[in-house]
Design brief:
Length: 138
């Protein structure tokens, strides 16, 4: 450990450059999945632009509580069920998962398949419920 600290103190420019590159890479990768929306921005998108909400959680989690009119397509099955979304290509698509972690990869998949207007719910359903917004249960 002391050698590592000594290396960092002697090569601080190199270590700083590496840190900056890693930070930029993480930002770039997170943006490829689409910009993030707050729960209030999601409500505005649905109300004003007829956005389609896709819930990426498994069916049991979806049935326990989801956004009104959300379509349940688990993230593992998104590529196989892409044809179900063809009628929504001209609308904004908002991806929702449990905590906002899986929506980035799903956003990349949708963008690669020709969806231009893809967004992610920041914080996922955890943030939605923390904001005390309504959920539908089955």
């Amino acid at each position: 450990m002391t050698l590592f600290i000594e290396f960092l103190s002697q090569q601080w420019i190199l270590a700083s450059a590496l840190l900056v590159c890693l930070t930029l890479l993480m930002q770039y990768e997170s943006r490829k999945g689409g910009p993030q929306l707050s729960p209030q921005e999601l409500i505005n998108k649905v109300n004003h632009q007829q956005a389609v909400v896709i819930d990426l959680r498994e069916k049991a989690e979806f049935d326990a509580g989801h956004v009104v009119d959300a379509i349940n397509i688990p993230s593992a099955k998104l590529a196989a069920r892409m044809s179900e979304l063809d009628s929504h290509r001209d609308k904004p698509v908002v991806l929702v998962c449990k905590m906002g972690q899986h929506s980035g990869a799903a956003g990349k998949t949708l963008s690669a398949n020709g969806f231009d207007d893809v967004y992610r719910l920041k914080g996922g359903m955890t943030e939605w419920q923390a904001s005390q917004l309504p959920v539908v249960r089955k």
